[in-house]
Amino acid sequence: MKDVVEKLGYEVELRVEGKARFYVPKLPSEKGYAPTSLPVFFNPISKPNRDMAILFAKTFFKGRRIRICEPLAGTGVRSIRLALETDIVDEVIANDISKKAYELMKLNIELNDVREYVKPMNLDANELLSMCGRGRPRYSYVDVDPAGSPAKFMENGFRGCDRGGILSATATDMSALTGAKPTSCLRKYDVIVSKTPFSKEIALRILAGFMVRTAARLGLAAKPILSFQKDHYVKVFTVVDRGITKAKEMLKMIGWISYCHKCMRVHVARRDEKPAMRCVECGGELDYIGPLWIGGLSDKNLIENIYERALENQELYHDVLKLLQCLRAEDSEIIGYYPVNYVAEVLRQSPVKPRKIIWELKAMGYRATITHIDPSGFKTDAPPSIIMKLFKELKLKS
Predict the structure, then answer these.
(1) CATH number at residue 279
(2) How far from each other are the two terminal CA atoms of the chain, in whole angstroms?
(3) Are 251 and 352 within one domain?
(4) At what angle do helices 300-312 and 47-60 cross, to 10 degrees?
(5) Inter-axis angle of helices 354-363 and 384-397, to 10 degrees?
(6) Contact in structure between 288 and 256 (CB atoms under 8 Å)
(7) Could you give phi then psi for residue 257, rounded to 5 degrees?
(8) Which DSSP string do the residues of 195-209 spell out, in sequence order?
(9) How far apart are CA 392 and CA 380, in angstroms?
């Protein structure tokens, strides 16, 4: 350890994640430290993000050997784990503009004996990705995971992605995406946003929509096939195709959401329609949000296959099993969800258990599921009037 510290010029510690052993800057003991303050960025809380990326890759690319690019690799742990935990890797480019990150990655690659597969680079992320198609082959999988917004990397991310390949993006700027900082959201994503009881789902739909719109500008079609929110971030995986006609098809799922804080009604409009400004249920004025993705956020068959892969090695992927179970049960085509505490507050009564509500709504013929985003929430296509009536009836029975 002493020789490593002397070589790097800062204190380090050895960590284990998945099958990888790797050095990271010595983490402060106090809670609430900023990972960006470390000599090399590393956030241990983001392990489930990396778990999901690896499970996704080994499932989606099963039986293939592919080239992967991690343009913002930090310590290199994701790239190293892809080489160690999957059999799909032909080559992984682990890149970071930070010289300190580059030197640390080289040590970690050596430590895990994956030099044959993981190639460290020290370039600007956009510069690296923009080289593709100009004498350099594109990648089958590009994973963009910055500290903050991925917006400035999306165009070149798509340029670096092969036809039929995957571009995934993580966003941690939740204050912008959830409506706490609407001006920031407009500046970064060109989206008008306001707060709703399901703002974390709105964050997912904004990121997904931004990726689809960015791809379309380049004559590419990006389709979200796996999306989730956890802890301090949202993550969206898109499969990339080429052609203006296909890009136009994806744009049909871009639209507007208007929310009524008075009666909880969600109004949806296509991108070529005007967003609703007045509630059809109660006549109240509406806040509208968009443009954003109004289609399904995840592919059910893909989630099922990823879950099966996770079950094959529960010791490695136990941190994401519950998330995957929730994603399996969730209907991501339903827009928004109802936190039971919020509904109870509107009705001025105590809350009802979400699973009881779901069971009753299904018995009435409505679609109803849990949401992975909020354990106290439920998704349904039932109108708010039915939901409020059911809440009152269930409360009287209890």
Answers:
(1) 3.40.50.150
(2) 61
(3) no
(4) 110
(5) 110
(6) yes
(7) -120, 130
(8) --TTHHHHHHHHHHH
(9) 17
Q: Which of residues 241, 272, 293 is at a domain's end?
A: 293
Task: Compute the average pLDDT of residues 99-117.
Answer: 98
| Spacing of C-alpha 242 from chain mean position | 23
Task: Give the residue numbers spanning the domain of 53.
Answer: 2-293
Looking at residues 132-150, what average pLDDT do you find?
91
d(C-alpha 291, C-alpha 279), whole Å: 19
Q: How many CB atoms lie within 10 A of CB 383?
A: 16
CA distance 241 to 223: 8
* Omega cis (within 30) before 291: yes
Whether residue 287 is found in the same domain as residue 336:
no
Query: CA triplet 27, 5, 143: central angle to 5 degrees?
Result: 55
Q: Residue 72 gets which letter from DSSP?
A: T
Do 76 and 22 meet the contact criterion of CB atoms below 8 Å apart?
yes
The arithmetic mean of pLDDT across residues 216-225, rounded, is 98
Q: How many C-beta neighbours within 10 Å does residue 297 have?
A: 22
Tens of pLDDT, residue by residue over 324-377, are 999 999 999 999 999 999 999 999 999 999 999 999 999 999 999 999 999 999
Burial readout 351-368 (b: 16 or more C-beta within 10 A, e: otherwise): bbebeebbebbeeeebeb
- Within this chain, do residues 205 and 333 fall inside the same structural domain, yes or no? no
User: CA 352 to CA 394: how far, in whole Å?
Assistant: 7
The pLDDT, as a whole number, for residue 6 is: 78
User: Do 320 and 340 lie in a common domain?
Assistant: yes
Backbone angles phi, psi at 293, to 5 degrees: -75, 130
Q: Contact 36/42 with Cβ under 8 angstroms?
A: no
What type of residue is 76?
G
pLDDT at 281: 87
| CATH, residue 374 | 3.30.56.70
